[in-house]
Automatic annotation (TrEMBL):
UniProt-recorded name of the protein: Translation initiation factor eIF2B subunit delta
The family this protein is said to belong to: Belongs to the eIF-2B alpha/beta/delta subunits family.
Main location as per UniProt: cytoplasm
Biased composition (Basic and acidic residues): 43-62
Assembly and oligomerization: Component of the translation initiation factor 2B (eIF2B) complex which is a heterodecamer of two sets of five different subunits: alpha, beta, gamma, delta and epsilon. Subunits alpha, beta and delta comprise a regulatory subcomplex and subunits epsilon and gamma comprise a catalytic subcomplex. Within the complex, the hexameric regulatory complex resides at the center, with the two heterodimeric catalytic subcomplexes bound on opposite sides.
Any Gene Ontology biological process: cytoplasmic translational initiation
A GO term, aspect molecular function: guanyl-nucleotide exchange factor activity
Keyword terms of this UniProt record: Cytoplasm, Initiation factor, Protein biosynthesis
Record's keyword annotation contains Cytoplasm: yes
Matching SUPFAM superfamilies: NagB/RpiA/CoA transferase-like
Keyword match ATP-binding: no
Length: 459
């Protein structure tokens, strides 16, 4: 290496960025003592061309290895950020553990003795997941498939299976989620034994029912009907006589759950279906959005009454659930026109006579909480002065109030990235809705508070 007169290395000479793992052997015939060993940094001796070439090759190999390692770490982090529900160490952490590196990330993902802690998210992964959602939407929850090993040890196997089904949207509609939840809680009650020195009324809710609810909520946020039913169940538990036998109390609770399912879900759906079918007349052209089991049964019931009508199905372009509805109706002999997106909405709306919705929930101010896109359909119907009818069980009515789609909503876990994300629901203002059909009758949509007062008197 050439040096300046003052002994400092010249700027034109190559500077090694890091020491190579291989030691540089001195030229043949030279002593290896400390005083006579060449020192490139101090400039005591100039390196030969062969040595410079060898050092450049080693530096190039080190840079190549560093770039390859950086690529693998970036690839692993991208995989984690693209799958927010996936837990476990990232590719960078696995690579670090293989090399024996003890950095902060590897420490967070490893247990005592260097053993990896199974199914635990590291702080870096949590930060990456939060970074994918803008801060103004950080209050909105998102379903995630949690490993069963993260659940509390007191969570019942039936609830564990239900949580996985909800997280993967195998059970999707709010009323179906409610029914499945109550049936799972019934199995929890049947397998419960009161510990010595405790009573069922005081021990069951905080120590047994609480962990079940927490696990289901962590898998997917509860719908409004689930919240209403859980409050009802807690009230029934609190009414249990302290002196009653455990078997009698458990039998009464299971019987109360069966009656609740029969009256508030099964019978309610039958009444709503028949009442909605009577609102469909001969010659009607009914426009529906997506697929709902309640809307499907209403249309089939109207057809069984001998009513001659046709249906326009406007589908959700992301889920395509309306395809199944169109096939089912067509198989029964109903004339169906299918549109896979909103491209033909206005044209079909001009020919429609009424619009039929099934609400996931109704707020106390009359607003409808339904599948994302329902508000667009209702707005188009209002512009063209078409009647909009909403079907909803009273268990789905909540005392809460919403005027927008950002107060209560969910983020679609399948379509969530750093660039964009999709909301699963939207809120339709009451001014775009005409009639609300429940098991208590047909009322104006703004009369939801009246139905709530009737339910409080009934309870």
């Amino acid at each position: 290496m050439s040096t300046e007169p003052n002994g400092e290395p010249s700027q034109g000479a190559p500077q090694p960025k890091e020491q190579s793992s291989k030691s540089i052997q001195p030229p043949k015939g030279e002593k290896t003592g400390t005083a006579e060993t060449p020192n490139a940094l101090s400039g005591e001796k100039k390196l030969s061309g062969a040595e410079l070439k060898k050092k450049a090759k080693e530096e190039k190999a080190a840079k190549r290895a560093l770039a390859k390692a950086s690529k693998e770490v970036a690839k692993g982090e991208a995989a984690v950020s693209s799958s927010p529900g996936q837990l476990g160490p990232s590719a960078g952490e696995v690579k670090g553990n293989k090399k024996g590196k003890q950095d902060a990330t590897a420490t967070a993902g490893s247990g005592a003795g260097g053993r990896p802690t199974p199914n635990r998210a590291t702080p870096s992964m949590v930060a990456e997941q939060k970074a994918t959602i803008p801060e103004c939407f950080s209050h909105l929850p998102m379903a995630k498939r949690l490993p069963m090993t993260q659940a509390d040890k007191s969570v019942h196997p039936a609830v564990l299976a239900l949580g996985q089904q909800m997280a993967t949207f195998t059970i999707d509609e709010s009323i179906n989620r409610l029914r499945a939840t109550l049936l799972a809680f019934k199995r929890v009650i049947a397998s419960y034994s009161t510990p010595a020195g405790h009573t069922l009324a005081r021990h069951f809710t905080p120590h047994v029912l609480g962990p079940q609810i927490d696990y289901l909520t962590s898998c997917r946020p509860m719908c409004f009907s689930m919240g209403n039913a859980i409050r009802w169940l807690k009230l029934q538990i609190s009414k249990i006589d302290m002196d009653s036998k455990e078997e009698d109390a458990k039998r009464d609770l299971c019987r109360a759950i069966d009656n609740f399912i029969t009256e508030r879900i099964t019978a309610a759906d039958e009444v709503i279906t028949e009442s909605g079918a009577k609102h469909i007349e001969n010659g009607d052209v009914v426009l529906v959005y997506g697929r709902s089991s309640l809307v499907e049964r209403t249309l089939l019931c109207a057809y069984s009454f001998g009513t001659n009508f046709s249906v326009f199905v406007i589908d959700d372009p992301y889920e395509r659930a309306g395809q199944l509805l169109a096939k089912t109706l067509a198989a029964e002999g109903i004339k169906v026109t299918y549109c896979g997106d909103f491209g033909g909405l206005i044209n079909h709306m001009r020919h429609a006579t009424k619009v039929l919705f099934a609400a996931d929930a109704m707020f106390s101010n009359g607003a409808m909480y339904a599948r994302a896109g329902a508000c667009d359909v209702a707005l188009a119907a209002n512009e063209l002065e078409k009647e909009v009818i909403t079907l909803c069980e009273t268990i789905n009515i909540t005392e809460r109030v919403a005027t927008d789609s950002l107060t209560y909503n969910e983020i679609d876990p399948e379509r969530c990235s750093a660039e964009a994300f999709r909301l699963l629901f939207d809120t339709t203002p009451v001014k775009y809705l005409n009639a609300l059909i429940t098991e208590l009758g047909c009322v104006a949509s703004k009369s939801a508070p009246i139905l709530l007062r009737k339910l409080e008197e009934f309870n």
